[in-house]
Amino acid sequence: MNIEQRSKRRKWVILAVPPLLLFVSFFGLTYGSVPITLTEIWNVFTGTEQSVHQTIILDLRLPRMLIGLLVGACLAVAGALLQGVMKNPLADPGIIGVTAGGGLMASTTMLILPQFSYLLPISAFIGAFVTAMVIYFLAWDKGASPLKIILAGVAINALLGAVQNGIMVIFSDRVQSVIPWLSGGLNGRSWYHLEFMAPYALVGLALSILAIKPANLLQLGDDSAKLLGQKVELQRFLLISLAAFLAGAAVSVAGLIGFVGLVVPHAIRLLIGEDYRYLLPLSAFGGAILVVLADTVARSWFDPIELPVGILLAALGAPFFLYLLKKRGLMS
């Protein structure tokens, strides 16, 4: 793809994303076991309608939709940052174990120290960050090998899963409250949960704007970045910290939702290229769109059962991941 074609495609993507986000948001508000029209939504927001629709929209669907937007944006941006830092388009907070690290710390807090539940985002960040650093250290050999990152991530995922299962067995009398969270979903999320995670998510997303320049410079390679006066290891450390913070914010409320950080940045990269000036914001929008759309489908298409969105995204993301592995020759 030449520069002119990429520029044209980039313009089309930028023009398409805002209306698509708006459509998905209204789709999340209107679609469900109780269909609600756009006119009824307008009446609810203008205060001219006092009915059961007001409760459904304002107390159930609206906070859930807003949380889905933030969770999707956080996971997609975290995935885009990790893919750039680790020089591996297959890196994803869920696949390489970062989400599992955050999930282990968060579930441990819920099971062992429930009185400190307000520290969930911080504990999830610590778990995600430590896991990311361990994986990067294990994969480093004069560069971050894509295959080593995947293998280290699989091993760390298995280890963290074993530890988490052990904790759940020990605290089996409390585990019922954690099981839905482990599946990854937005069921039952309310304004309380939005107020709980929004400050962390918004701060992380705002800081990601500052990550655009160093992420682009790291694309040039360590040697070239150093020649341009960049402190490569410090920047890499800060970008991994930011990705872990974003993943932790998402995990603390939505649980273990995977593959958003893999599918969205990779698809955006194929469409518009590697430039993080466009890749990072478009990944945020794309992640928000994917999670809200998948959550609406998961809670509506399987009525009367509400399927956790994490299960649906895993069913869609796993084949995509295997396709990428095969395409890159890592399975040959």
From TrEMBL:
A Pfam family recorded for this sequence: FecCD
InterPro entries xref list: ABC_BtuC-like (IPR037294), ABC_transptr_permease_BtuC (IPR000522)
Transmembrane segments: 12-34, 65-82, 94-112, 118-138, 150-171, 237-264, 276-293, 305-325
Domain of life: Bacteria
An example Gene Ontology biological process: siderophore-iron import into cell
Membrane association type: Multi-pass membrane protein
Keywords associated with the record: Cell membrane, Membrane, Transmembrane, Transmembrane helix, Transport
Keyword Membrane assigned: yes
Name of the molecule in the record: Iron ABC transporter permease
Origin species: Halalkalibacterium halodurans
